Fold each of these.
Amino acid sequence: MLRLVAGHLFGGVLLFVSLSLGEAASPRDSAVPEKIEATSPSPSPTPQLYSAQTLAELKQLQQAALASDYAYRQVAHLSNNIGARLSGSAQAQKAVDYVAGELKALGLAVQLEKVMVPHWVRGEETAALVQFPGQAPGTSQKIVLTALGGSVATPREGLTAEVVVVRDFDELQSLGKEKVQGRIVFFNYPYDRRMAAEGRGGEAYGEAVVYRSDGPSAAARLGAVAALIRSVGGAACRLPHTGATDYAQNAAKIPAAAVTDEDAELIAALAPQGPVKMHLLLTPQELPDAVSYNVIGDLKGSEHPEQVVIVSGHLDSWDLGTGAIDDGAGVAVAMQAANLVRQLGLHPRRTIRVIAWMNEENGLRGGKTYASEHAKQVADHFAAIETDGGAGHPLGIYIAGKRELKARLGPVAKVLQASGAGLLEFRDEVGADINPLAKLGVPNFSLIQDSRFYFDYHHTAADTLDKIDPKELAENGVINAVLAYALANLEQPLPR
Ligand SMILES: [Zn+2]
């Protein structure tokens, strides 16, 4: 982690040096502009990016954000007073009304944009090993698991079948239909805790989450009657992680659940000793799609009100916890950007648009609907920011878009460096709800957040307010406020 940060900081310093040279360079100095072109191929060697006034205001926003508990109060209300906010639930609707009211109270022009969302409801979820080597007569071993979002139900009385353990898709294929048919396939692919400990939690998650999304259909194609995965995340204390599965069109839908790490170890230890049979009961229901909303609040720009900078998080959450880190925190720090601009009496040149997205977790309907309904105004979407990586200490900004975007953010990174968040890094995709806009050419940004512990709680019953450190949340608010306001006042277009 330390080594990684040191490398990033070094990169940040280099960037800053080259920009400083760029600002100071005279046109006759041929050596320096060449260097600048390597990192910043903008048409003018000395474009002004931010006015002196804007730069001073960014520092004011930074200080105000560090001193503010507004974001913490917002995420506390969303998680404690409203609670879990799965799409289609009464709590999700309450959260829509609440955020709309809070944005109105800030003086924003608020609209609810309708989105039809899936309405999946978790039911009972129990499992036990009913046959296994060494079993005392008449006993069973309880297995702790949770249904994957979107899972179909087992028969009403549950199902009982032998468990076949595979590590990955290749091992499943090598077994073939004969050894899978009629059985429960268990994908025992571990979340890489060491990778997470190095600060690469997102990568560890990405490697394992394919079994959650694609595992059930892969098992169904070989005739499995149910699919289990090892929970995708680092939780100990026998906590299962939910998350959406993605049934393929060309496969039967079979019940799907995630077992805890501890139960994964248990099954994996017993299976090589002899046949292991499980009784599994899942009773989720898929109700008709429900009406819900993206909550949109505009702080109108003074010069280019039609041009918008989106700052956002997603309002829906999984149902097991109270959706504090995923993603009440992201919504709260998006609201914070508008709150601080209002509090300091600043006037952004472009519109700052706060969006609380609906249905990121099990359908992405909010982000997709917005991009399709606003496709005609895509040229006026100057940039989009989304925070959806928890509330850990931020290190800087992820960028998805043209390489030239990095130079545009150089002076912003210099300001953010003072609160420990001066990194600028590229990723192909930085926010699930804003990615449909990225595909239409809108530059996308998100926060680089400490990911070491995020996946210990994410999508579990332990995603609760106590996991948020108010100081670290405030640091995330700094980036949203500074970045949104900087983009709203940028003197140059963003390359796209
Ligand atoms: Zn999320």
Amino acid sequence: MMIRPILKYGASLLHAPAQPVAGITSAIERLIDDMIETMYAAPGVGLAAPQVGEPLRMFVVDVSAGRDPKGLVVMINPEFVERSGMQLEEEGCLSVPGFNATVVRPSHVVIRGLDRDGAEHQHEGNGLLARAFQHEMDHLDGMLFVEHLRGVKREMIIRKIKKLTRAGKW
Ligand SMILES: [Zn+2]
């Protein structure tokens, strides 16, 4: 297993839709292991393949951050089955380090996809888990949480990132 560098806001792969995974090859299995290792090391509660430079529709989530052995979810080619309710919570992203903002999202989701053995499975999430699933699904469509923000807050974050980029600190 290997900890991979995490791309940051502005890297083109993060702003483009990812491609479906064609099959669970040994390379995909290695990538899953690397993503899990990278997520826990960060530390973070979710990581999508585009964040480590692989434009593929897969992500890992563990809102227990490794404390619950059953907390780890691996999702390959996921899709939404259900989305309902509303929550307003602070959110951040390993690809946008140092920035947090309140994002409005549905409070309940059901997603369906393949696990690492290629078997179809379905996961229900409420609260933080629902938020994590939607945040990672966004990554697969080339969207970051910053793009959910409106007006001043969004412009302030983007302006600060541009400034850090110019200074070579991003
Ligand atoms: Zn993220």
